[in-house]
C-alpha cells in the first residue's frame, strides 16, 4: 500500500476489542501530534490517559458530573456512556489549553491546530493497524472535564476510544471529493454538494 492509499483507507472504528496499543505504540501514536501544523508553535493540544485500573474510579466521577441538575441527561444516555467507557480497550481524553497570554494566535486557530494534532493521532493509530473513534457530545461537558482535574484554560475536545477492530476491517464508501471542490472563475463559487437540495 502506498502512503496515499494508506491515507485514503483510514476510517473510524466504533467496535473495538483488546489489545490496545502497548506503551511504546502509544508513545509513537501520540508523537504524531507533534507534527501538526501549529501557528505560533503553541502546541495547545493535551492528552489525558485513563488506564484501565483507574477507569471505574474516573467513571464514578463522570457519572456524578452527569447527574448534576443542570444537565438532565436521560438515564439511558448515562448508562450508555458508562458502558462505552468501561468497555473501551483504551480511553484517551483530548484537551486543549486555550492560550491567551503573549500570543496573537486566536483561540479558533488554536482549536484548528489541536484538531490537526488529533487527526495525526488518528492516522498514526491507523498506521499501526489499530482502530479508533473520536467522540464528544454531551460527555464533553464541563463537569466531565473537571472530573479529570482540568479547569479553564483547559477545554475538552472529546475522547478517543482505541483498540483492535472487531470483525471486518474494511473502509466504508467515501463521499465524492469533487462535490466538495469549486473552481473560482470570476463569479461566486458553488459547491455541488450544497446546490443539490
Ligand atoms: C470532533 C468530533 C466529535 C465527534 N463526536 C462523535 C460522537 O460523539 N459520537 C459519534 O458517534 N461520532 C462522533 N464523531 C464522528 C466519528 O468520530 C467518526 O468520524 C464518524 O463515525 C465517521 O467515521 P469516519 O471517520 O470513518 O468517516 C465525532 C467526530 C469529530 C471530528
UniProtKB/TrEMBL annotation:
<dbReference type="InterPro" id="IPR026021">
    <property type="entry name" value="YdjA-like"/>
</dbReference>
<keyword id="KW-0560">Oxidoreductase</keyword>
<dbReference type="Pfam" id="PF00881">
    <property type="entry name" value="Nitroreductase"/>
</dbReference>
<keyword id="KW-0521">NADP</keyword>
<feature type="domain" description="Nitroreductase">
    <location>
        <begin position="9"/>
        <end position="163"/>
    </location>
</feature>
<keyword id="KW-0285">Flavoprotein</keyword>
<keyword id="KW-0288">FMN</keyword>
<comment type="similarity">
    <text>Belongs to the nitroreductase family.</text>
</comment>
<keyword id="KW-0520">NAD</keyword>
<dbReference type="InterPro" id="IPR000415">
    <property type="entry name" value="Nitroreductase-like"/>
</dbReference>
<protein>
    <recommendedName>
        <fullName>Putative NAD(P)H nitroreductase</fullName>
        <ecNumber>1.-.-.-</ecNumber>
    </recommendedName>
</protein>
<dbReference type="InterPro" id="IPR052530">
    <property type="entry name" value="NAD(P)H_nitroreductase"/>
</dbReference>
<dbReference type="InterPro" id="IPR029479">
    <property type="entry name" value="Nitroreductase"/>
</dbReference>
Amino acid at each position: 500500500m502506498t502512503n496515499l492509499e494508506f491515507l485514503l483507507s483510514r476510517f473510524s472504528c466504533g467496535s473495538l476489542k483488546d489489545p490496545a496499543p502497548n506503551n511504546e505504540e502509544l508513545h509513537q501514536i501520540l508523537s504524531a501530534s507533534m507534527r501538526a501544523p501549529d501557528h505560533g508553535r503553541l502546541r495547545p493540544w493535551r492528552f489525558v490517559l485513563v488506564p484501565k485500573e483507574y477507569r471505574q474510579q474516573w467513571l464514578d466521577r463522570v457519572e456524578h458530573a452527569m447527574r448534576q441538575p443542570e444537565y438532565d441527561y436521560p438515564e439511558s444516555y448515562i448508562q450508555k456512556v458508562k458502558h462505552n467507557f468501561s468497555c473501551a480497550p483504551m480511553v484517551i481524553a483530548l484537551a486543549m489549553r486555550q492560550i491567551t497570554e503573549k500570543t496573537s494566535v486566536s483561540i479558533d486557530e488554536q482549536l484548528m491546530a489541536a484538531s490537526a494534532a488529533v487527526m495525526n493521532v488518528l492516522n498514526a493509530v491507523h498506521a499501526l493497524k489499530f482502530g479508533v473513534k473520536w467522540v464528544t457530545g454531551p460527555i464533553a461537558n464541563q463537569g466531565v472535564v473537571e472530573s479529570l482535574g482540568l479547569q479553564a484554560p483547559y477545554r475538552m475536545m472529546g475522547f478517543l476510544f482505541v483498540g483492535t477492530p472487531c470483525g471486518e476491517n474494511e473502509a466504508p464508501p467515501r463521499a465524492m471529493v469533487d462535490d466538495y471542490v469549486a473552481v473560482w472563475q470570476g463569479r461566486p463559487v458553488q459547491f455541488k454538494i450544497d446546490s443539490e437540495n
